Amino acid sequence: METMGTARRATAERVRDVRERLVAERDAWVSTGHPDHGPHLVPLWFLWDGRAVWMCTSAGSVTARNVRAEPRVRLALPDTFDVVLLQGEAEHFPDHEVPGDAAEAFAGKFGWDPRAEEEPFLYLRVVPRTVRAWRGEQELRGRVVMRDGTWLG
After folding, report:
1. Is 80 exceeded by the pLDDT of residue 59?
2. Fewer Cβ close by (within 10 Å): the C or N end of the chain?
C-alpha cells in the first residue's frame, strides 16, 4: 500500500485503500466526549469485520464512561499524511455479552482475549456513518468516501 505520492486518487481508489487499511492496521485514535467532562482521546487496538470496527477497553475507563453517556465517536488511523477518519455511534457490550464471533476474531488478531481477564472489559462496536480519506492537500476536495453508511464511488 503506497502512502506517498502526489496523484489525486479517484473515490473508488480511496475506498479500496481505506478498506485495505482497516484490515491491515492495528491502532486507531478514538475520540469520545462526555456532556459534563468534555472530550477524551485515546489509542485503542481495533478489528475491522468488513462492516464495523470492534475495540475493547476497561469497563471502568473514561472511554467506557463516555460512550455510555454519549455514543457518538470519531476514529482516526494514525498516519497524518494518509488520513482516514471515521464517524459513527458506539454500541457497547460487556465482555460476557459480546457476540462470540467478534470476541474470537479480536482475540485471534491480537493474541489477547479480554474475556479471560479478571477485570471487566467493554467491547465497542462502531459502524461508520461517515468516512473521510485524503493524502495531502490535493485530495482535500472529495475527501468524503462514505456518507450515511454507504461507500461512495
Report:
1. yes
2. N
The mean pLDDT value for 137-152 works out to 96
Sign of CA dihedral 136, 14, 153, 10: positive
Paired residues of 135 in beta bridges: 82
* Residue among 27, 36, 82 nearest 55 (CA): 27
Please provide the DSSP assignment of the chain as one string: ------SPPPHHHHHHHHHHHHHH--EEEEEEEETTTEEEEEEEEEEE-SS-EEEEEETTSHHHHHHHH--EEEEE-S-SSEEEEEEEEEEEEETTTS-HHHHHHHHHHHT--GGGSSS-EEEEEEEEEEEEEEESGGGSTT-EEEETTEE--
Place of cell 485515546: 42
pLDDT at 1: 47
In single-letter form, the type of residue at position 58 comes to S
Half-sphere exposure (CA, 13 Å, Cβ side) for 92?
21
Average pLDDT over residues 134-148: 95
Give the number of C-alpha atoms closer than 13 A to the C-alpha of residue 7, restricted to the C-beta side: 7
